[in-house]
């Protein structure tokens, strides 16, 4: 996507290249890798909808027919060789493949909120985080510095600080953070936030256990797990109510919102990374709309920019 296209299609006038350059600056350029969530593992999945989604949306994967999925678990770092333990937040990106071949994606992480409210503050915060690389700030000082300039970051940074090392990619709770809008056959619109809840519960490691893990322990664990059983996640839609902001990924909705069980994702096997896989979180299907969240809209162009660079081996 060129600069003009990305500027006209998205609400911010910031070019995606500027965001991707800022991200690259955190740990340097690693040719061929995603510019964020660089280390990861792809798997084959099957999504079995519960049927309860039909009341809210016409989306093909949320009716009654099961659909194939490509899944990628990842660590959040920009550095592909960083050990699993050193990137606290983990990602789960799911590409549903509808019967007619159309794809739609849901991308989540293990914290419920994001640290920036707008693309502009995202870029400023990432520039600030560069001071970790130059050694002028340690991790704790950096968090304090960010919160003192960007109070919107507080909830996300606290959530990151509370993270414990996961025992398995399959035993993490993932949040897709942004609001989306589901649209049913009558045209009724319902704002939702999606979550992936692990069927076997959340399990973390003690510091002693964590200290004994090899760099890529999470991928090793998945390989062993798949010999005996699949990893299973429940897809939940949290229903937004009157007054719940749909344009602010830095704040969670109240905890008492109604939750709908949309179905289960069964992940059974590690597969080689499909070279052309792009998990754009704005790739939707009939029965789904983007919310007015400016970060969500901006992600599309930045993911395309990162994809373009890595596909060209840059
Ligand atoms: C302005 C905000 C954001 C920017 C600029 C950004 C940027 C990026 C970029 C450049 C990539 C690599 C894309 C690729 O090469 O395919 C990426 C991947 C990823 N991001 Fe973001 N991101 C943002 C917000 C978020 C949020 C809010 C979440 C969580 C909901 C998230 C979760 C992920 C995950 C899980 C991946 C890995 C996707 C995969 O496995 O293919 N990002 N991000």
UniProtKB/TrEMBL annotation:
Cited CDD domains: srpA_like
PANTHER family named among the record's database cross-references: CATALASE (PTHR11465)
Protein origin, superkingdom: Bacteria
Purpose of the protein: Has an organic peroxide-dependent peroxidase activity.
Protein name: Catalase-related peroxidase
Gene3D superfamilies given in the database record: 1.20.1280.120, Catalase core domain
Keywords: Heme, Iron, Metal-binding, Oxidoreductase, Peroxidase
EC number from the UniProt entry: 1.11.1.-
Record-level Gene Ontology MF annotations: peroxidase activity
Cofactor(s) the protein needs: heme
Ranges of residues in domain Catalase core: 15-312
UniProt record similarity statement: Belongs to the catalase family.
